[in-house]
Automatic annotation (TrEMBL):
PANTHER family cross-referenced by the UniProt entry: ATP/GTP PHOSPHATASE, ATP_GTP PHOSPHATASE
Protein name, per record: ATP-dependent endonuclease
Domain OLD protein-like TOPRIM per the UniProt entry, residue ranges: 409-479
Domain Endonuclease GajA/Old nuclease/RecF-like AAA: 1-81, 283-363
């Protein structure tokens, strides 16, 4: 069972919108774009324990905080989820609520003209539509909400009260038992990690206990009995016993207490299941020490790995492929190799994984077709579709996974021909940042610009169409070619937001042609005694300008690329913005100006297939 489509109306930052899932899904986008909102919406529809929080929703869960219209009538939160790949048990349990779904068109066939005749067409499958409805109830002065089967609409069976019947307009509730069959698990970011490892309802430890089999009733009864019958009792501690006796003596003047010493006492808790759930904590002794401490006292990374260990347990208990697993930002406090390991595990062991992330180490584990880029405008209209399969060639993505992952997270991309250019632009950006007012220039890193190494002469043009299709502000810079560009190259270059052709053949020649000789001399003086200095004559202060430029060109060519970084060292010796090469300075300031013209919260990429962009 997996989620195919999620529609959201009037929930948090989303006025209206939908997201399509193709299986395992990575949700990416800028901050506050709606990633966490989608996970929370899924939890409202599918989470077995989520609806037992009181209130189910509150004022801040309504879009712009509006839960009443101008006439004082309630405005509803509506979250619709469509589930497909139903198990045999789900088909049996939910018979009568499933509908025929055209998976190519992403629509129910009974909504189309003559839909009954299309019920057995290719690509038409059974789907289960569910809906969460939440609103403010004026009579109770409280917020209410519940999840329902969204088809068919009719008389509900054995509803708890009239209020819920009214809320669902006759729909049948989708109960906690139904939700458990879906196997939905939601792991929030570590800001709620303490709850994930407690015994509170819906936590990971609670999920392990619940999935592990029967016996929970006896466990709680036995635990509460043991707490009450501690020997010696907590109240027998000398200091507490004295206080207990004083309280009994003084209260006895005003209240008819039971006879004997047991009329007052101290116990470990309220001796209720819920209180024990709140206070019981897992203790762990980690190397090199042997002392047990509450898990929350461990390092952040260790807590995350403990969560990961529980996920492996849950996957086994749920028979792996039956789990719909949502996880927010698994990269928090985890080193890159662990990020990769966690991501690979959930992709291999969970039936459907829905992950949010800002980490390229996580992103690179997903195929392009599994990545959904979210976009939300100022009016709260949310869109999210899988990447158009024609936008990124699978072979290119596999070869350049890390670079594409960083580009997907960026606001803009600068595509260059090689590692020499890729290494010098950040240094030039630093020079500008240090010498221009902050209002006039922002560093590439702070502006959210990634540099993409196209990997060779003539390679820049072919990425123009790629990044244009990904909805990116994209910029290209390439060397003056030996021969005129082909028609295809010219056509691809036109897809860039802006591009530049170097007036020189070779980046080294461009740098030396457009930089003051004083900067070149500083550079040669600084590198002459380096251990990696090439086998060229060392710089002498008495050298004339042509000799110094010739030597610098030989040194730069001998130490190309980012391994030595000599071109970046040369640029780093610019003391002012004016000393930077004119072409490099123009590229960086143009990118800055283009980004300034696009509000940051509106330039989230939109990697939508052409036919989907109209939705």
């Amino acid at each position: 069972m997996r989620v195919r489509r999620l529609k959201i109306t009037h929930f948090r930052g989303v006025a209206e919108g939908s997201v399509d899932f193709t299986g395992h899904t990575l949700l990416v986008g800028g901050n506050n774009i709606g990633k966490s909102t989608i996970c929370e919406a899924l939890d409202l529809v599918l989470g077995p324990e989520r609806l037992f929080r009181r209130p189910v929703v509150d004022e801040h869960d309504f879009h712009c905080g509006r839960y009443l219209d101008k006439d004082g009538n309630p405005i509803e939160i509506r979250i619709e989820a469509t589930l497909i790949d139903l198990s045999d048990e789900a088909h049996r349990r939910f018979r009568g609520h499933a509908r025929r779904w055209d998976d190519k068109k992403c629509s129910f066939v009974d909504e189309e003209p003559e839909g009954v005749d299309k019920a057995d067409n290719d690509g038409v499958i059974w789907a289960l539509p569910l809906i969460f409805i939440g609103r403010y109830d004026k009579d109770e002065d409280d917020f209410i909400g519940n999840t329902f089967f969204d088809h068919p609409t009719g008389e509900a069976d054995a509803l708890d009260d009239e209020l819920e019947n009214k809320l669902g307009s006759g729909r049948v509730p989708f109960t906690r038992a139904h939700k458990r069959l879906c196997g939905f698990v939601f792991l929030r970011t570590l800001r709620t990690g303490s709850r994930a490892l407690s015994l509170q309802r819906g936590s990971l430890l609670d999920s392990v206990l619940r999935l592990g089999g029967s016996g929970s009733v006896e466990m709680w009864q036995d635990t509460l009995g043991r707490l009450q019958a501690l020997d010696p009792a907590i109240g027998d501690i000398a200091q507490l016993k004295q206080i207990r006796d004083e309280i009994r003596a003084r209260m006895g003047r005003f209240v008819n207490l039971a006879d004997g010493d047991e009329s007052t006492g101290f116990f470990a808790s309220d001796l209720t299941r819920e209180h024990v759930r709140e206070v019981v904590r897992l203790f762990i002794a980690a190397q090199p020490g042997k002392h047990l401490v509450p898990f929350a006292r461990l390092g952040t990374g260790s807590i995350n790995l403990l969560v990961f260990a529980l996920l492996t347990f849950i996957a086994e208990l749920k028979d792996r492929q039956s789990v719909i697993f949502a996880m927010e930002e698994p990269e928090i406090a985890l080193p890159p190799h662990t990020q990769r390991r966690v991501t690979r595990f959930v992709l291999a062991e969970m039936g459907q994984s829905i992950v949010t992330s800002h980490s390229p180490y996580v992103i690179e584990q997903f195929e392009p077709t599994q990545i959904v880029i979210l976009d939300r405008d100022h009016d709260g209209q949310l869109t999210g579709k899988p990447i158009d399969q024609t936008a990124i060639k699978p072979k290119s993505f596999r070869v350049e996974r890390r670079q594409f992952a960083e580009a997907i997270l960026s606001r803009a991309v600068l595509v260059v021909e090689g590692s020499t250019e890729a290494s010098l632009f950040p240094v030039a950006s630093t020079v500008l940042e240090e010498n221009l007012p902050s209002d006039d220039y922002m560093h590439l890193d702070l502006a959210g610009v990634t540099i993409f190494n196209a990997g060779g002469d003539g390679a820049v043009p072919r990425y123009g169409a790629t990044f244009s299709a990904l909805g990116k502000l994209s910029f290209g810079f390439y060397d003056k070619p030996n021969s005129p560009l082909t028609d295809d190259a010219v056509k691809n270059l036109a897809n860039y937001t802006q591009y530049w052709e170097s007036p020189k053949k070779g980046i080294e020649a461009l740098l030396l042609d457009e930089m003051p000789i004083v900067v070149v001399r500083r550079f040669l003086e600084a590198v002459k005694d380096r251990s990696d200095y090439p086998g060229e004559p060392k710089y002498q202060e008495a050298m004339d300008e042509p000799t110094a430029l010739s030597l610098a060109l030989k040194v730069l060519k001998a130490r190309k690329g980012d391994a030595y970084g000599y071109a970046a060292l040369l640029v780093g010796h610019c003391a002012t913005a004016e000393e930077l090469p004119k072409t490099i300075r123009e590229i960086l300031t143009t990118i800055h100006d283009k980004l300034q013209a696009v509000p940051e919260d509106l330039d989230a990429p939109s990697l939508l297939a052409p036919e989907a962009s109209a939705e």
